[in-house]
Structure formats: C-alpha cells, structure tokens
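Sequence in, structure out. First:
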Amino acid sequence: DSLRRISATTLSKLLQGKYKGLYDEYHIIDCRFPYEYEGGHICNAKNINDPAELYNLFFNKKDYSKNVIIIFHCEFSSERGPWMAQFFRKADREKNRFFYPRLHYPEVYVLKGGYKEFYNNYKEFCSPQKYVEMADSKY
C-alpha cells in the first residue's frame, strides 16, 4: 500500500520528546478492540475503531493550521490499523478535493509491527504493561 510506516524505535523517541519542535501535536490511534486496548496500550493512545468517530475527531474543525502527526496501529498493523489509516487519508483527500494535493494531515503513519512489536521492545511506554491478543480465549 502507499501508507508510510514508523518503527517502534521512532515512536519511542517521539514519546520521549526527541522530535519536539518538529510538530505541534501527535495522536496515536489504537484501532484494536476495547478489550485489547484495556489489556495494555501505548501511553496516551486513543482507542478508536469506528471510522465515524475518527472522522468526527479530526475533520469537524475550522482550524487546520497545526502540524499534526497521526500514527495508526492495531495488534500487528497488518489489517485494522492500515485500513483506518487508508480511510483517514481518503477522508482528508475528499475534504481537500478542490485543492489537490493539499492535505490537512500530511504526516500520517502506520506503526510497523503494531502493538505487539512495540510492546515487546518498549513496554515501559505501555499502560498497563500488558498485552492482550485479539485471539485471547477469554474474549
């Protein structure tokens, strides 16, 4: 696909503030099911797996002047996260259809390897420091 990827290492540096000054704000969008998110997620991530909720959060604004980084992920970032990122990019293109190639959010990424890879390498940035799989038999 045409989506840009961000590594777990780069995301950890972002969380540590090593890229401050290059952006105004960042959002981590966790596209997993609520039980996965509640079982452990990246600090400050928002659990959004509904496209309408995502759209309302980012595209019902009047001011798009901030430089915003948006990072999508799911368990492995192979299905749900990339799908939501593609939905997001398509919505941004539609909002700017008369001003191509302008985008309100040009800095959109998918976390390579998803929560699983991030958790395995940087669990100190996860809360709680746990990992519940989508296929967990309890759910």
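Second:
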Amino acid sequence: MTIPQLLLCLSLSMLCISSKPTEKKDRVHHDPQLSDKVHDDAQNFDYDHDAFLGAEEAKTFDQLTPEESKERLGKIVSKIDGDKDGFVTVEELKAWIKFAQKRWIYEDVERQWKGHDLNEDGLISWEEYKNATYGYIL
C-alpha cells in the first residue's frame, strides 16, 4: 500500500468515526396524550375532563347543569378515593386516570372487534378483516 492510499484510507476512517449520525432517535418513551384536545387551563378544562373522566363520560358532563355536574363529580371522587379517607392523593388520581384510559381502550377494542367480526361467530377470519378494513364485499 502506497502512502497516498494509506492517507486516503486513514482520512476516510477518521471521517466515518467523527461524523455525527444524521438521524436523531428519541430515546425517551412518551406516554400517549390523555386527550386530543388542547391543554390550556387558562381557556377551558376540556383536556382535563377527558383525562379525568374519559372522552365519553366527559361528553355527558358538557350537557349537565353546574349543580348536576358537581353532584356527579362528587360521586366520582368517592370512587377515586381508594382508601376512603376523604382525600384524593396524587397516586389515587394517577390510578384513576389510568383506569379511565384503560377502560376507553377496552371499550374501543370491543367496538373494533364487533365491527370486524361480520358473521358474529366470535372469531375474525382474514376474509372478515379484509372486508371490514378495506371494504371488500363478502
């Protein structure tokens, strides 16, 4: 190997070693958003209502009077207070929010299942999936 070839190999090696990766990878796992609404407590509490109650339950609260809303929220707070000490801790609140989100996921899975199980036999065949997803006729 001649000196120019050696210098070329050495410079290419240094270039590869010192170059920064072009693709930035996010190494932090981010939890999904609790609501698709904007989180701005200065304007409204829609995001908080979705996170706290679940999207479907939050819709029903939008149609209640303030008195009815307060009464129903009081009942929900009693459910959140796991140790029944009259106070809601941060951990109890986190557990409730996770419960509400999981409940929504399970309800959505059930709805999706029913939408794909076209012959209602409790199983989804490839034909049923293809028909329900891509709109093919049975």
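Remark: The CA atoms of residues 50 and 66 lie 17 Å apart.
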